[in-house]
Amino acid sequence: MVKIDFECPLCNEKNILVLMGDENGEFNKKCKACEAPLEVSNKANKIEVKARFPKEIVRNTVKENKIPSDYKKYEIDNSKHKMVKIIAIMILCSSLMGFMTGWGLLNYFEADFNEYREIEIEIVVKNKTADLDNAIILLDKKEMNHTYIGNGTYHILAKPGKHSVKVIASAHKDATMEIFIPPQEDNLSLVNIEQGIDGVNRFTFEMGEGTGKINLEDTPYLKIGAWCPNLIFIFSLIGLWGAWMTYTLQSYNNAQIGAFFSVLAIGFLIIGPIIGIIALFYLKKYKFLFTASFKN
């Protein structure tokens, strides 16, 4: 018994041929991997392996990929590409308006408003049970002249802008509040109510009994000044990213996200959002131009 090891010339799979009796001659065998008919020749200790192909089998199965001569090449309309650029520019403009709005808010809350005249504001001083009628009021560390009109309400004069107000009352803790007085007409009040508007020209100090100091919550305007510009900047950055996604046609979903946040950036209050909404509308209309519309 003789064992012959050989490789298939077609798939290079190793095969074994076991011969019983005469070991010289030509022998037929199928490859165990590709099942191709093989002819194994063992003569003078020399092994040759050939693949046998019937006439009906074509050995070269690779076909040349040719485009038919009558095939009409598809070309994207240039006007559609121009529309995509216009959409990207709209998202870009909306985002840049957001940046300008955020920058304007920062400057607005930090402005000194020196050119404005003083206006009358109300300081209300009370504790949990009663109004306090003998308080000392300091504006930016300077004691202010005031007019007491009853019910714990004091009138002082101050210019618009950011101020620190400190109230001192006997047997109570000193209370400090950071306020922002927006530019306004003098004696601004609610309709049919003879008092100022809370957070605008009326500020209430709820005093705690005892000794020491307390810091009261900032007014709404200061909270807006602390948070809104930063949020607007973030929304505008996302909008810029969305404009690039649109211009390069990378992702329809990302372009939508950018356009949506450009609306939230409230550039120039209403102009930026209107432009962003228009961009969102046309994005949906030209969705098919995005290479990644259905991937992301």
Question: How does this structure look, described?
Answer:
It is a single chain. By secondary structure, the protein is α+β, with helices and mostly antiparallel strands. The protein contains four helices and 14 strands. Strands 8-7-11-12-14 form a five-stranded mixed sheet. A four-stranded mixed sheet has the order 9-10-6-13, with no helix packed on it. Strands 3-4-5 form a three-stranded antiparallel sheet, with no helix packed on it. A hairpin with a 6-residue loop joins β1 and β2. α2 packs antiparallel against α3. The relative contact order is 0.13.
Number of strands: 14
How many structural domains? 3
User: Approximately how much beta-strand content do the residues carry?
Assistant: 25-35%
CATH topology of the largest domain: Immunoglobulin-like
CATH homologous superfamily of the largest domain, by name? Carboxypeptidase-like, regulatory domain
Q: Which H/E pattern describes the elements?
A: EEEEEHEEEEEEEEEHHH
**Low-pLDDT ranges:** 55-65, 292-296
Strand order of the largest sheet: 8-7-11-12-14
Give the terminus-to-terminus CA distance: 65 Å
| Structure classification | alpha+beta
In one word, what is the shape? Answer: elongated
The average pLDDT value, as a whole number, equals: 85
**Name of the level-1 CATH class of the largest domain:** Mainly Beta
Radius of gyration: 42 Å
